[in-house]
Design a protein that fits this description.
By secondary structure, the chain is of the alpha/beta class. The protein has 16 helices and 13 strands.
């Protein structure tokens, strides 16, 4: 638009043909010696590099920058991996710019709004044209991510939102005033935060299960101030017999009207070090306990069966094969219960910053941020989303 000559790279013949059709002056193979080919065509290099390549390919792009040129980094991989880069190509007054588009609206919303308005105006005027896109139905979301993973697309991928389910009216969950809600892992961390949330929703009777009992005595007084009477039960939910005894004890005092399963442990490690024992250690309090809760509460008048899963099921996470498998099992259990006409919701939360597993392990939180490039949410923000999710027809959210 400003009259520059443009050289572009792409990794497949189809994509290079698209770039030529789009008007690029020079089209090169990003998987070949594009730097040498560009130097042959344009010996002096380029004034501006817009880069999204990583590793050694990024270094070759950096070396193409002219004196007093600009190198604009649009990718994230080298930042997430904290990779070192040679500085010699910048010695002749070249400038390096790091651009994280996700950070812009968070840090400078007014500037982001201004830039988006400018782009929208140029689109309306025809000065720039929208990129091509491929649309996927909601049920094809996995295929969409596989396409993105393989870089097999040109332009953007669009996943259409699911249409409202016909014949399924969204109805808010309302707790019974007389029945008790059982919260596994409810004596600490995110489970305890969920108990507070339940009390704020009007739950008047809570049974908090935990292996080590209540660590924060003040929490019981806080729950009472919110109008909820909470009883603490020492129970390892991975032990189905002990869980059955505990549930029977709870029923002796009051009917069980809801279950929230927040128990879980981590045992991260490389795949080569993941033996059967390490899988059992993570699956037992998460998936085995959920299966036991499903079986042992079959005759209880439940209006709530809430499971806390993980976003790692959709995206994966290095070192957490056992944890991902356990949460995938929770999603399958929720779908099975819904298919049988029983209440169930599995919420695939992302990382929680201020409560739960990551709150006490800053090193793990930092490693997750580096590997996945995501920011943790607060427990309050996560729990505030539950009313809408509980009212929706989907068993997994």
């Amino acid at each position: 638009a400003i009259g520059a000559r443009v050289a572009m790279t792409a990794g497949t013949p189809a994509k290079r043909a698209f770039l030529r059709a789009a008007g690029a002056d020079l089209v090169l193979d990003s998987r070949g010696d594009f730097a040498g080919a560009l130097r042959t065509a344009w010996p002096d290099g380029v004034d501006v590099v817009l880069n999204s390549l990583a590793g050694e390919a990024m270094e070759r792009s950096l070396q193409l920058t002219k004196p007093f040129g600009r190198f604009v980094e649009l990718g994230k991989r080298d930042f997430v991996e904290n990779r070192r880069a040679p500085l010699r190509p910048l010695r002749r007054n070249a400038t390096y710019f790091a651009v994280d588009v996700d950070e812009l609206p968070r840090a400078r919303p007014a500037l982001a709004s201004q830039l988006l308005a400018r782009i929208a105006q140029r689109l309306r005027e025809g000065a720039i044209r929208p990129l091509p896109f491929a649309a996927f139905a909601p049920a094809e979301v996995e295929a969409a991510f596989r396409t993105l993973q393989a870089s097999a697309h040109i332009g953007k991928l669009v996943i259409r939102p699911p249409a409202p389910a016909e014949g399924v009216a969204a109805s808010p969950w309302r707790p019974s005033q007389d029945r008790v809600v059982v919260v596994t892992g409810g004596t600490r961390g995110f489970g305890l935060e969920c108990a507070r949330w339940l009390a704020r929703q009007g739950v008047r009777h809570l049974a908090l299960l935990g292996r080590r009992g209540m660590e924060d005595a003040a929490a019981l007084r806080e729950l009472a101030a919110l109008g909820a009477q909470a009883a603490v039960h020492g129970c390892d939910v991975a032990d189905a017999e002990a869980l059955a005894v505990t549930l029977a004890k709870i029923r002796a005092g009051r009917e069980i009207g809801g279950v929230v399963h927040a128990a879980g442990v981590l045992d991260d490690g490389a795949a080569i070090a993941m033996d059967a024992a390490r899988f059992r250690g993570v699956l037992a309090p998460k998936l085995d306990a959920a299966e036991a809760l499903d079986r042992l509460t079959e005759r209880d008048p439940l209006s709530l069966f809430l499971l806390f899963g993980s976003a790692t099921v959709a995206f994966g996470n290095p070192g957490q094969a056992n944890y991902v498998a356990a949460n995938a099992g929770l999603e399958a259990l929720a779908r099975r219960r819904r298919a049988a006409g029983r209440p169930a919701l599995c919420v695939a939360f992302g990382p929680i910053a201020d409560a739960g597993m990551l709150a006490a392990d800053d090193a793990k939180a930092q490693a997750l941020r580096r590997r996945m490039g995501v920011e943790a949410m607060t427990a309050e923000a996560a729990l505030d989303a539950l009313p809408a999710l509980l009212a929706a027809p989907d068993p997994v959210a």
